[in-house]
From TrEMBL:
Species for this entry: Bradyrhizobium icense
Domain of life (superkingdom): Bacteria
Gene3D superfamilies found in the cross-reference section: 3.40.50.1460
Protein name (Swiss-Prot/TrEMBL): Caspase family protein
Amino acid sequence: MRILLAVGCDDYQRAAKLSGAVKDARSVFSALVGDQEHQYSPEQSRLLASPTAEHLRTSLAEILYNNTNITVFTLYFAGHAVVFDETLYIAPIDTLTDRIPATAIGFPDILRTTAGARPKQANFIIDACNSAGLGFDIGSILKRTIVGNSDTMGISFVASAAAEETAKETIEGGRFTIEFTRILRGDAFVQQARPFLSLAEIAQQIQAQGTIENQTISYWTLNLQGPNLFAKNPYFSGSAQTTDRIVAQVQRQTIGTGVHVAEFKSALAKILDGVDERALSRTLESAFSKIEPEQRTPLIYGLAEGLAIELSEANDRFLETRVYNVLCGQLLGLCPTNARTLAINELIEWHTSASRRALAQLNDAMATDRNALMLDSLSDLYELPIRLSDILGQCALFFFSQSKFSESDSKLVSDVVQKILARYGNSILALTDDQATGFLLFLEMCRRKGWSKYSEEVIGRLYHDMHENFAKCGAYSLGVEQRLLLLTERYQHSFSITKDIYNFPSDLATVILSFCALAKLDEAVDRSLISIDHTSINYFIPDNFDRFGLNEGLVGTNYTITLGRDFWRCIDLRRILLNDLLPRLNASSSSLSWQDSFCSVASALALRDRLPWHIVHKHAAEISL
């Protein structure tokens, strides 16, 4: 069941009267409510014109508690609103301006009332002055005192004006609501790929149009119930069966994240400040493991959809793709195969768009700022080389996320790589195993694209640095003190090996030597291999790739070979790779769909301590050594 409560207040008794708020409420009600499939119920939905506080409270309670199995509840309010003591109050017509807390309705009270009724999804649209003041209340949404035991409610908000701005009116109505209802009626296009429009993407579309000046649109989403079903998409090009399946899936949701809900939601709320992919993966995995397997896919999909808008505005250009990488691993490892297909397809599309946007922004930034990737800190001696490997890995993920890589996308990646090598080439260093996955993906992309110019420069720089440092590469996730020890030994060219800061065998050394062999750099490398004799390299072949993105240890087989015992030259290693190891790796992943394979690769870049060797294929040109 879908229920709308549309409220417009014009006839204020003790405050300035308005002329368009009731008209706005009627316009939204008319656009959303009807007898067609998946519109809001005309019997249960209500339109309130200039209600008192008592009337509004009573109507809200009756709508929510006299109806059961509410899939979507939406509250639209147009009228006066005010922020008092960092709380947003919406003003019914009998509000006294000198007694706001006593006579207006605080937004936290609305949230408590709504959460107690357990709708699957709740949407709040406030077209009023100061309406973004509800942002002050977002923190309270994460508290159990607000959500009670309603761990599963998906919540979305849109506010038409900042906390210190006014919401402008015209003869036709509020400027925001006019644009809002144009989209609902189909007069403006948003997208055609999904059967429902989410509240956040509508707000983003209005904001992108730039037709509303001096009025900041704000939106927040905490989606724990699958795709947001706010409104039917008039431009959806798919079948009715798809729409029905998505609605039925949300209606069946009985997710309970239990005692982990506070930790779970807090982790999501903190993402915009930056993300530790492994910590996020661990938190989500702990929460998802308490949920029935068939219920996990809609939850992961909802999180991705709900976070997409906020993540796209983050300072970290790649934050959105980093979070998607984690979610890809969760989908692959925790969701049944038949249930995750649709969600994975959507997530890969979002990943591709986010990568394209991030790389374009980075390309523009590097064109004007030669230090665009550097931080003003000595820590960049350690962090910049890792940052570069991560960005090159993100370039490769962008390539692997598409079955057909367009010329424009190819040029974008090429431009980014050229700028990185031209300006930061001296920071392409073999520092730590945290870099291994990024370089593996990048070098394999170069093999497939035929970009030998880029791959040879990167391999050459990495091999030279590894050789200069006696094939010593730092271990994963070193602490601050360990990083300092590693840098000290490197720049003093020390022969000592400080315990616990190096990996033997090193995954990064394995990547470097393997791609030296695959790129046939025999003449450049063979003569110097004697200086790093007895270096061991290791390949791990998982028994099952489905758990490649989870924190638990993987089950599989290690194949360790040693320079000077198992191979002596590049051609020897090349034979081992092409005739033995790569066929084994490719066979182990042969049952993976293209989408599942991408998820395994994306999650490997997120967690870093597992190498997706199965993405490295034996090319036709390599049959002859």
